[in-house]
Every structure is written in structure tokens, then in C-alpha cells.
UniProtKB/TrEMBL annotation:
Pfam families: EIIA-man (PF03610), PRD (PF00874). Residues 161-286 form the PTS EIIA type-4 domain. The lineage of its organism: Bacteria, Bacillati, Bacillota, Bacilli, Lactobacillales. PROSITE patterns: PRD_2 (PS51372), PTS_EIIA_TYPE_4 (PS51096). InterPro entries: BglG_antiterminators, PRD, PRD_sf, PTS_EIIA_man-typ, PTS_EIIA_man-typ_sf. This is Transcriptional antiterminator bglG:Sigma-54 factor. It comes from Enterococcus diestrammenae. PANTHER family: CRYPTIC BETA-GLUCOSIDE BGL OPERON ANTITERMINATOR. Gene3D superfamilies: Phosphotransferase system, mannose-type IIA component, PRD domain. Residues 52-157, 412-518 form the PRD domain.
């Protein structure tokens, strides 16, 4: 696996600098469990790829797991077996090629997974006999980890996510803002703490510390402080030093920032991921409001392929994507995914030169509203077609404008209308985290254009069934559509009915790109 090679290279580089073995283990071991759970869950997620594996490999996998079930007195479902089969195929290929691996946390595996390690030793003997390879101790460590994880049919159960605390000056500023965000999202997550203007900062910190210590068991995945200004922002370092809980702080918080933080925390995003996404939102807002002229030079399109899985799986991924991409217009960029923060930094730097159309790989990452396609979607013919359209297609604005020029009789400048609509629609997609296919975007553009023309003609509009219930459920999304289309209403001296706003919101929600293989929680590494 390329990840093994990268870990091994990292260990070698650090060893050359004189870092001790214990320090190396502490440096790397913290990511191993999180990575491994992600790796197994992603491998196991779908059954459409059994044809990729030879029958002998399936027979061997079932033989190994039947033995493990008896020895460990536990059941392993088919998805767990499939995940191990893919891993085993890559392992055998690597060993035959003379590429052994290093397990960065082998001592802890032997210490904490004693039963599994003993069974893995026996299973390795079976593999050696049937495949004519020598299984090293490091690989036995990974087999032990496979035996300790059961992949569930219903998806990974939710665990405690990142805790969000809103800290602000004023009698009710923090709690009021939090309540508004909670109501918009329909969640009870988050905790608000108000700092009266006559309160000493030491007292505010004491109250926060009491809250943290009282809920320490629920803060294993980190704490995010959302503050308004001043010394409250320094509490993050103090909390970390005093409790050891990973804590980050974001200042100049608005209701929208609280909404975004709660939304991402509720779906299981990591502390670093939430922090980076919100900080990127700040940068985007500054860029959008700075009125800097946009360069006429279009960025070259690119698709990023993450190389975090086995070499064999990664090669198959690349081979599947290459034929559907016009490499004259779209570049395939292959990147390793060892650490999420480093990966995101690389994505940020690439975005200065490329328009990244999609990220494909086995480790799911939701970043910058870039569509993600799992390895399994790449091997699904229908989803591969969707990927091809996302990468290659553009909304054919010239054709749409030409076809509507003589059709929209009440709109004086069809081209101007459609360009304004496209800008508004792109902004709505970004803010709603609802990317749609180019063909769907084109359809929505045409729909709104006809809607505007019809309203100007005085034509009747449709009625949205159960409008109050829909608006209540999707208040935030509906408000985003309404707000972004307000300039259009002013430009054409008309008003879009609430029912039509609801229809537009529904179109975006029902057509947004999403993986059919997603888990109930995103796992960060």
C-alpha cells in the first residue's frame, strides 16, 4: 500500500534526524486507528466489485475468516470479509514484488489485541502455505486489526462529535445566537456562555473550565470555541494546556458561522476539518467582497485522485478514470493522503492554478464544495458517467442564450439575465453545500429564465404543496435561495412567489451530488 510506503519513508526520515523510536511511535500511532477504521469501512462499503477479485482469493478469505470465527467466538459479516480480501490481494502483490511494510504501532497491537494477534499468527501460516509468500510480523499486526473490527451493515454508528461552545460578551448574545442556529438546523447541539460586561475574564474562564471538566468524556474529539472578540479567543490554548483536550477558537463569529460549525459537528467532521472550512469561508467572503477583477484566463480543469489505498486498488482507480477524461483539457493529479491538514493545504495550493472538478479516492473528504467520488463509485458504471459529466461538462451558456433570445419576449437582455442567474445559482450551491451536475444546472437556469418571463407577462404560478412545513424544515436553504435572488427581483421589478422559491430549493436539494455509499459519519484522519 502506498500509505505503508509513505509511513515507512516518514519513519526513515525522522530516524535519520535522531528522533528516538518511542517518539516516532507517539508521532504516528495517533493516526493509525482512525486511518485503519476509515480504510476498512471504505473497502467494505459495496459489493459491486467482487468481480475484481479472483475466486481463489475469496475461497482463501472465507477459509481464514471461518477459522477466526471459531477461535475468537465472533461473527464477521460479508462486508468485513470483502474488505479483508481487497487488502489481502494488495498485500500478496506487494510481497511478491519485494515491498515489505512497516506497522508504526506494532507493539501496541500485540499488547492490546492479544487474542487477535495470536489468531493472526495462525492465519498467516495458512496464507504462507497457499500463496507461497512469507508474511512479516508487521503484516500480522494489520491482520490483527482487521480481526478486531466488525463492519456493520447499517453503517458506522455515530460517536461523540466535536463539541461547539459559543462564548460572547453581553447578557444573552451567545445563547441567543446559538438558539437561532439550533432552530435553523433542528438540533440541540452546542453550548452557549454569555459574558456580562461587568464580569472579570478570569471568572468567564473558570466557568468554561468547569463546563469542560464536567463534560470531559464527551470532548474526546475536540472542542471548538466560537467567540466574538478580545481575550476569549485565548481560552483555546489555556484549555488545551490545562485539560489536554484539543481546542481551537474562531473569533468574529456570526450566526452563519455557528450554523456551519454545528452542521459539520453533527455529521461527524473533525475539529481540524471544521476549523479549516470555516477559516476558508472567511477568506472567500473577503475575496468576494473585495471587488478584485477576475482574471480572464480560465484555470485548467483537474481531477484529484488520492493515493491512500493499496497500490493495486489505486492503479485500478487511475485506469478507470483515465479513459473518460480528455487530458488535453483536464489533468489527473495523483496525491497521497496521509494527513488531512497537509492534504487540504495541497488542495488550496492547487486551486491557485486549477479548477478542481472532483476528488476521487478511498478516504472521503468534504472540502471546498468539491464533489467527492469514492473508489466504489468510480467502479460503478452509472456513477462513473456522473463523474465524467462533472469533470468534462460545462453549462452551454452560448447555446442556451441563443435558444432563448427570441423566446423570452418580456426580458430585454436575455444574455444579461442568464449570466446573472448563473452567478446567483453558483453562489447558492456553494452556500447550500449542494453541488448539482452541469446538465441539472442548465435546466434550473432555463426554468428560472422562463419563470421570470412568465411573471413579467402576468402568468399564474404554481402552488407548492404543504409549503409551511417545507419552509420550516428547510428554513436555512430556503432563505439562501431567497436572498441570492433578491437582486434579480430588483433588476426586473418583480417578485418571485414563495411557492416558486420552495420549488427551486427542492430542485437543488433533490439533485445535489451525493455518494450512495456514504456512512452516517465522516471519519477524519
Amino acid at each position: 500500500m502506498q500509505v505503508y510506503n509513505a509511513i515507512e519513508a516518514k519513519v526513515s526520515d525522522l530516524a535519520e534526524t535522531g528522533v528516538t523510536t518511542i517518539d516516532l511511535e507517539k508521532l504516528i500511532m495517533k493516526d493509525v486507528d482512525a486511518y485503519f477504521e476509515t480504510y476498512v469501512e471504505q473497502l467494505a462499503e459495496h459489493s459491486i466489485h467482487k468481480d475484481l477479485l479472483p475466486p481463489d482469493l475469496w475461497r482463501l478469505t472465507n477459509k481464514l475468516y471461518d477459522t477466526a470465527e471459531k477461535r475468537l467466538d465472533r461473527k464477521f459479516n460479508e462486508k468485513a470479509r470483502f474488505a479483508f480480501a481487497l487488502h489481502l490481494q494488495s498485500t500478496i502483490e506487494r510481497l511478491h514484488e519485494g515491498h515489505p511494510i512497516v506497522h508504526p504501532d506494532l507493539n501496541n497491537v500485540r499488547k492490546h489485541l492479544k487474542k487477535e494477534f495470536q489468531v493472526a499468527l495462525d492465519l498467516s501460516s495458512i496464507i504462507e502455505e497457499e500463496c507461497q509468500v512469507e508474511i512479516p510480523f508487521d503484516e500480522i499486526g494489520f491482520i490483527s486489526m482487521f480481526l478486531s473490527i466488525q463492519v456493520c451493515d447499517t453503517g458506522k454508528p455515530m460517536t461523540e462529535g466535536v463539541s461547539v461552545v459559543v462564548l460572547m460578551h453581553g447578557k444573552a448574545t451567545a445563547t441567543s445566537m446559538l438558539e437561532a442556529a439550533q432552530e435553523l438546523l433542528g438540533t440541540k447541539s452546542g453550548h452557549g456562555m454569555n459574558m456580562r460586561l461587568d464580569m472579570e475574564v478570569q471568572e468567564m474562564y473558570r466557568q468554561l473550565l468547569e463546563h469542560v471538566l464536567a463534560n470531559k468524556d464527551k470532548l474526546k474529539n475536540g472542542l471548538l470555541l466560537l467567540t466574538d472578540m478580545g481575550s476569549l479567543n485565548s481560552f483555546a490554548d489555556l484549555i488545551f494546556k490545562e485539560t489536554g483536550i484539543r481546542t481551537k477558537a474562531i473569533s468574529m463569529t456570526s450566526t452563519m458561522i455557528v450554523v456551519e460549525a454545528l452542521r459539520m459537528a453533527d455529521i461527524g467532521r473533525s475539529l481540524e476539518d471544521i476549523y479549516q472550512n470555516i477559516m476558508q469561508s472567511f477568506r472567500s467572503i473577503i475575496r468576494d467582497n473585495s471587488h478584485v477583477p477576475v482574471s480572464e484566463n480560465k484555470l485548467k480543469k483537474a481531477v484529484v485522485v488520492t493515493c491512500f489505498t493499496g497500490e493495486g486498488v489505486a492503479n485500478k482507480l487511475y485506469q478507470r478514470i483515465e479513459p473518460i477524461v480528455d487530458q488535453q483539457a483536464v489533468e489527473i493529479i495523483q496525491m497521497q493522503f496521509i494527513e488531512r491538514q497537509v492534504f487540504i493545504q495541497h488542495i488550496d495550493s492547487l486551486m491557485e492554478e486549477y479548477e478542481i472538478k472532483a476528488i476521487c479516492g478511498t478516504v472521503e473528504i468534504e472540502y471546498q464544495n468539491i464533489p467527492f467520488f469514492s473508489a466504489y463509485e468510480v467502479f460503478d458504471n452509472e456513477r462513473l458517467k456522473v463523474l465524467q459529466r462533472v469533470i468534462s461538462d460545462e453549462v452551454p451558456m452560448k447555446k442556451i442564450i441563443a435558444s432563448l433570445e427570441n423566446t423570452l419576449t418580456e426580458v430585454p437582455d436575455v444574455s444579461g439575465l442568464l449570466i446573472k442567474l448563473q452567478r446567483a445559482l453558483r453562489t447558492i450551491q456553494e452556500q447550500m453545500h449542494a453541488v448539482v451536475e452541469p446538465s441539472v444546472e442548465a435546466g434550473i437556469l432555463v426554468h428560472i429564465a422562463f419563470l421570470v418571463d412568465g411573471i413579467l407577462k402576468g402568468e399564474a404560478t404554481r402552488t407548492f404543496q404543504e409549503l409551511p412545513a417545507f419552509v420550516k424544515k428547510y428554513r436555512l436553504e430556503n432563505d439562501l435561495v431567497t436572498t441570492n435572488l433578491m437582486p434579480l427581483e430588483k433588476d426586473y421589478q418583480m417578485q418571485l412567489p414563495e411557492d416558486e422559491i420552495a420549488f427551486l430549493t427542492q430542485m437543488l436539494l433533490e439533485n445535489k451530488l451525493q455518494s450512495p455509499f456514504k456512512f452516517t459519519q465522516n471519519i477524519s484522519v
